[in-house]
Write a structure and sequence with these properties.
mainly alpha, Serine Threonine Protein Phosphatase 5, Tetratricopeptide repeat
């Protein structure tokens, strides 16, 4: 749990290089791999898209991101893990799937597969809802309200460090509430 607090502090203070170093160390130590990986994707993409960095640094980050992503996306354990699929699709769709050499169709398939694996999970329903032939805005709002009102979901989301904070802010916005 300690790394989650550190990563939030580094990220909040704009220390993205420290954030990346900590997350890479976690991967080498095989420490909370899923949570570490989704936060690493998030920090890389946030840094690339939202910060003013040199072209050279951006290229290094993209190369590192894609080589790390390739390891996880080709691993049977992760490609069949609904949590991995959901969070990866969520992050990629937030910043630009093309940075991960994914297409919009790939993102839809990741959301769909997470939903198919665990069709009772409100997060996966919420993520997949734009691809259903329903009034998805209404459906997303209803599910966002249910998710932010459920301690089980909240605890799980909060365990995801920076990604969890971002997702929780999105859910609160869609639910029409200020914050939790």
């Amino acid at each position: 749990m300690e790394w989650r607090k550190k990563i939030k502090d580094y990220f909040k203070n704009g220390n993205y290089a420290y954030s990346i170093a900590l997350l890479k160390r976690n991967i080498l130590e095989k420490n909370d791999l899923l949570d570490t990986f989704i936060n690493l994707i998030y920090v890389y993409l946030y840094s690339i898209v939202e910060t003013d960095m040199s072209k050279e640094t951006k290229q290094v980050y993209l190369k590192d991101l894609n080589s790390t992503f390739k390891i996880f996306i080709e691993d049977e354990e992760y490609i069949n893990d609904p949590e991995f699929l959901f969070y990866t699709a969520y992050i990629a769709s937030s910043f630009g799937e093309f940075y991960l050499d994914l297409t919009c169709n790939d993102i839809e398939q990741m959301f769909e597969k997470s939903f198919q694996i665990d069709s009772l999970n409100l997060l996966y329903i919420w993520g997949y809802s734009p691809y259903l032939n329903v009034d998805y805005a209404k459906m997303r709002k209803e599910h966002a309200i249910k998710i932010v009102s459920n301690n089980k979901y909240l605890e799980n989301i909060k365990e995801k460090a920076i990604v969890g904070d971002n997702l929780l802010a999105t859910l609160c916005f869609e639910a029409g509430i200020n914050s939790i």
